[in-house]
Each structure stands twice: as C-alpha cells, then as structure tokens.
C-alpha cells in the first residue's frame, strides 16, 4: 500500500519568528516578562474586538482562572457539554465544582433546547445568604454557570445561550479554545467574535490549534475588572509585589515572552490560515458529496467559522465500512485521522457526575471521523485523501 504522510493538524510556522526569539535570548526576557507578551495580548484583543486580553500558559489555565473569577466555588454546579475535550471539565474539578453534562445537537455544540428543558424541569429558586439562587432539585447544589464550547470552531448560537443565562441568572464561560477567528455575521457584515459574548472567554494556542505558541492561551472579557482579577490571579495573586504580600491563593499561569513572540508572528498570518482552511474544506465538501455513505458536516449559517477541524460522518450501510474500519485504513496508509473525543460522562473519573438525556452525542462519537485539516494542507493532499476515501468504499 502506498504510504503517504498527511498529518491531521500541525503547526504552520514561519522564519519571521527567528529575530524575535533572538531578541528574547539577547535581552534575557525569556520568561513571564517582556514586550512580546504585551504586543501579543494587544493583537488578540484588537482582532476579536475587546479592549484588553490576558495571556496565560494554556487554555486550561485560562479556564481554571475563568471559573474562579466567575464565582464558581467548591460544591457549585457548572453545566457543560459531554461532547468536548476533557480540558473543558478538569479545571472545574480542580475547584471542587460539579459538572452537569449536556447532550449535543447536530452542530456538535451543546443542545440548547435540552439545556433549557433541564433548567426548567430541574432548577428551583431558593434563598441562600440573602440572595436568590438556582439549585438543582436532584442534588440541592447551586447551579452557578454554563460553560459552552464552540466545537471544532463552529460558533454556537450565543444569542440563545445568553437569553437562557439571563433568565436563570447564570454566568457564561466561553471555551473558545478551538474557535479563534470564528465570528458571527449577518448579510456579510461581521458582528462579534466567539469568546466575546459570554461573561468571559478563553482561547488555546496548543500545537494543533489554528494558531500556536507551542502552548499558551488567552483570556478575554469586556469587563475590565474581570480581566484585572484574571491577571492578578495568574501572577500568584501579589497584592504588594515589592514586599511579596499575597491575600489570596494565585497561580503561576502567566504566558512567557518566548511563547508570545510566536503568537505575534502567528497573528500576522491568522487570516491567511483561515482562508486556506475554508478553501480546503470546500474542496473536500465538493468531492465527498459524490461518495455515497460519507457526509461532510457543515458549519453554522450566519457565521464565519475558522473551520478548525473537518468532520465526516460514515454510514456503513452505504459506504461498506464503518467508522472504525475507515479510521484504521486511513492511518495505515499515512493519513492521520481521529474520532470524536470520548464523551465526558463516559470517562472513568467523571462517571459519578450527572448527565442529562445524552442521546445524539452517542451517534456522533460512534460515526464521526476527523480528516487532515492543517493550515498548510495543500490541494494535492486533499486530492490524495479524497482518492483514498473513494478507493476504500466497498
């Protein structure tokens, strides 16, 4: 069998970073201080349309601080999707909070109809410490927040999310780890970027993301006080940095200058990355629509999604192979592909937590396949992947 080498999603780096890394070395600013941190934060903030942003060491670190700044405490509940990567959930566990897992809809994002149904049927208003709070009738715990995920860069209906959150007085954390560059539009006019419509949002710059700093993340919010608190907690909560006074428990979560230099370079290329992503997605979509038994998942209307990952659904009765059989064949010939993450409520350390009517997510975890989508993927590589998809059909 012909052996190809087409990875799923890899960094796309350019040599304009070299002088910036040399500057970091020459000046000694290689850690959590230096001009590139500020420049990267300013570039991200300007790009997504907020006044300020705070760089942190990872998307997970950003989520950890975001949950805390949003007032999530030990014993509280946070509603989150079961169809997500575990990094969405782990930081709330660090705090001692309880996830409540929600099903996905056909966009892979949280099923907002089930979310509203859950809150209507299982939520109960009560007074605690002189404040009206929503508790879960099943557990008697306070429901504090919703964490939504724009899965694979596909923007969820944030208007609906915020309507629900307002009705039930819940904070909204936007896990936008995968969706930097995705925004809402109407009649071709840009409206708002993902990450900026909830109370707080985070982005990830892990190696497989659309923009990478090797690691790293960014926290954004429109409320300056929220970001001031994020920044404060991310540098060990120094109340008086000169005399090393600490009035709270903080974290060593600040983004480094070296990582930020990569970020500055990557931000200059981001729109080009997305343009190539969209071009290749359309090439795939046009070809795959002619392969019976395979279907390319669409991105939501009235959005400009960053098209981070490309997903196909495999119907064995028409294609002749099931998803797992196709997964093995593609990887054997050097085309890296992967299934959807294992559902969160199925994970060993998370099975104890409540899951609400999980139905559709199971269908996607059994039948979905992600195919190569790097920002430097070529049209020839797309043709090679499509050729194998055609050739494997029975």
Topology readout:
Blueprint (H helix, E strand, L loop, with lengths): L17 H10 L7 H14 L4 E4 L2 H11 L7 E5 L8 H6 L2 E5 L9 H11 E6 L2 E6 L6 E7 L8 H11 L2 E5 L7 E4 L2 E5 L6 E5 L12 E4 L3 H11 L3 E3 L4 E2 L10 H11 L2 H19 L5 E3 L6 E2 L5 E5 L1 H4 L3 H10 L5 E2 L15 E2 L3 H8 E4 L7 H14 L2
Parallel strand pairs: 2-3, 2-6, 3-18, 6-7, 7-10
Antiparallel strand pairs: 1-11, 4-5, 8-9, 8-15, 10-11, 12-13, 14-16, 16-19, 17-19
Count every helix, treating DSSP H or I runs of 4 or more residues as helices.
Answer: 13
How many E-type strands? 19
How large a portion of the residues is in β-strands, by DSSP E?
15-25%
**Widest sheet: strand ordering:** 1-11-10-7-6-2-3-18
* Arithmetic mean pLDDT: 97
What is the CATH C-level name of the largest domain?
Answer: Alpha Beta
Rounded to the nearest angstrom, the radius of gyration is 22 Å
Task: Report the CATH topology name of the largest domain.
Answer: Aspartate Aminotransferase, domain 2
| Shape assignment | globular
The CATH superfamily of the largest domain is: Type I PLP-dependent aspartate aminotransferase-like (Major domain)
| Contiguous uncertain segments of 5+ residues | none
How does CATH name the architecture of the largest domain?
Answer: 3-Layer(aba) Sandwich
Count of individual domains? 2
* Structural class estimated from helices and strands: alpha/beta
Q: For this entry, what is the oligomeric state of its chains? A: single chain
